[in-house]
């Protein structure tokens, strides 16, 4: 016991490309893989990053 100190988990951050129906870019969704400490960040993570599909900085949100 006590070995599982840092409960870091791998998460996927996804752009909202998929929600923009105006843009015909079905070939991809901006995604990043990251990790977080479940204990420190129990809520969903949101990071501003550059999305090559949106061609701009957008908020990437953690998905399940
Ligand atoms: Zn995007």
Automatic annotation (TrEMBL):
InterPro entries named in the record: Ribosomal_bL33 (IPR001705), Ribosomal_bL33_CS (IPR018264), Ribosomal_bL33_sf (IPR038584), Ribosomal_zn-bd (IPR011332)
Highest taxon in the source lineage: Eukaryota
Location, primary (coarse class): plastid
Gene Ontology molecular function: structural constituent of ribosome
Keywords: Chloroplast, Plastid, Ribonucleoprotein, Ribosomal protein
GO CC, alphabetical: chloroplast; ribonucleoprotein complex; ribosome
Gene3D superfamilies listed in its UniProt record: Ribosomal protein L33
GO process terms (BP): translation
Subcellular location field: Plastid, Chloroplast
Keyword match S-adenosyl-L-methionine: no
PANTHER family hit by this protein: 50S RIBOSOMAL PROTEIN L33, CHLOROPLASTIC, LARGE RIBOSOMAL SUBUNIT PROTEIN BL33C
Family: Belongs to the bacterial ribosomal protein bL33 family.
NCBIfam families the record matches: PRK00504.1, PRK00595.1, rpmG_bact
Protein name: Large ribosomal subunit protein bL33c
Organism in which the protein naturally occurs: Polysiphonia scopulorum
Gene that specifies this protein: rpl33
């Amino acid at each position: 016991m006590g070995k599982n100190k840092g409960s870091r988990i791998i998460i996927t951050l996804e752009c909202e490309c998929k929600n923009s129906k105006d843009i015909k870019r079905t070939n991809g969704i901006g995604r990043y893989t990251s990790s977080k400490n479940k204990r420190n960040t129990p809520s969903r993570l949101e990071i501003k990053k550059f999305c090559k599909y949106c061609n701009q900085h957008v908020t990437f949100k953690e998905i399940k």
